[in-house]
Write a structure and sequence with these properties.
18% of the residues lie in helices and 38% in strands. The chain has one domain. The longest helix has 18 residues. The chain is flat and about 45 Å long. A 4-stranded antiparallel β-sheet has the order 2-1-4-3, with no helix packed on it. With 98 residues, the chain is α+β, with helices and mostly antiparallel strands.
């Protein structure tokens, strides 16, 4: 893998979409054991998987994995912690009572 080159590969995958009162989730599992590293992207091929209300849908698809270059992987690792901190909410004020 070069400093600026990106590789693309395909892998079979399983897509699970749950649309219930107790759970609203979507998961993709790569069936060939491929590992996703920081900076890599995965795109599931085909039309969107739609689950009607109160159903759990499981479909087999093909995923296109685009591997990050060495430079992109390094940049993702260095800036990942900073982007995570944007998700955190901090408050240093006292509780106000009326």
């Amino acid at each position: 893998m070069g400093l600026f080159t990106r590789n693309t590969e395909t892998a079979p995958c399983t897509v699970e979409v749950c649309h219930k009162f107790e759970e609203l989730s979507a998961h993709v599992r790569l069936d060939n054991g491929a590992v996703i590293h920081p900076g890599d992207s995965v795109q599931v091929q085909g039309p969107p998987v739609m689950a009607p209300w109160d159903h759990h849908v499981v479909e087999r698809r093909t995923a296109k994995i685009t591997r990050a270059s060495a430079l992109e992987r390094f940049w993702t690792r260095m800036t990942g912690d900073l982007e995570f901190m944007e998700l955190c909410e901090f408050s240093f004020s006292e509780e106000a009572t009326l």
